[in-house]
């Protein structure tokens, strides 16, 4: 299971870094935040550390984060397309009080088991929460486990990602997964074992990401074959709750 988590989390490391992310002709969707509305269809956006003015025929909401394709017109105007609101889970990822590295997850595994040691870690962290946000986040991670979904906030080599994994029932050995990556968007699919080895079927929310990952398939290690497809709406395996009235120890 750790190898599958590793392979999926490492997708975030394929994303361009630094100046490439702030470039307006990026090959990937950019993560932006609406800072203010300046007039009819005019907005002030935060892209990375840069504030930019742009127009959008689609109504945007101040304070909301979006993924969007961004480019410049021949006159230099900034153009936005394929705007998609980011899920609340992305903000939860960025504010999470518990972020694990691959090494941390490896240390949790006992006798090939990860779920129970992870459960014990979360319970221990819950005893030392200092805010409602920490309690709610850790409680949701526990609730996710009750639904047989392992949810990890991963921080590795300055890159962050959220990965959810659920073992599917049946004869075929397979895992369903869902991931969030700040510069790739949402990703879901399954990892399965057949006579040829371990394979992955990956769905991504943006066609640009399909092309980007297709060109870097060789970097997705540990799989005999990888199929990458476009799907506009991708749902998490477990959606975080706003309250934890039904949580059990």
Task: Looking at this protein, list some descriptive labels.
249 residues; alpha+beta; six-stranded mixed β-sheet; 7 helices; 25% helix
Largest sheet report? 6 strands, mixed
Number of continuous helical runs:
7
- What's the overall average pLDDT, rounded? 85
Which geometry do the CA atoms define? Answer: globular
Succession of helices and strands: HHEEEEEHHHHEEEEEHE
SSE layout:
Elements: H1 2-9, H2 19-22, E1 30-39, E2 42-47, E3 50-55, E4 65-72, E5 78-85, H3 88-95, H4 102-108, H5 115-126, H6 132-146, E6 150-156, E7 159-167, E8 174-181, E9 185-194, E10 197-204, H7 207-214, E11 225-230
Helix pairs in contact: 5-6
What does the model show?
It is a single chain. This protein is α+β, with helices and mostly antiparallel strands and 249 residues long. Helix content is 25%, strand content 35%. The chain is built from 7 helices and 11 strands. It has helices at 2-9, 19-22, 88-95, 102-108, 115-126, 132-146, 207-214; strands at 30-39, 42-47, 50-55, 65-72, 78-85, 150-156, 159-167, 174-181, 185-194, 197-204, 225-230. The strands form 2 sheets. The protein has a 6-stranded mixed sheet with strand order 6-7-8-9-10-11, sandwiched between helices. Strands 3-2-1-4-5 form a 5-stranded antiparallel sheet, with no helix packed on it. Strand 7 and strand 8 form a beta hairpin. Residues 18-23 have low confidence and may be disordered.
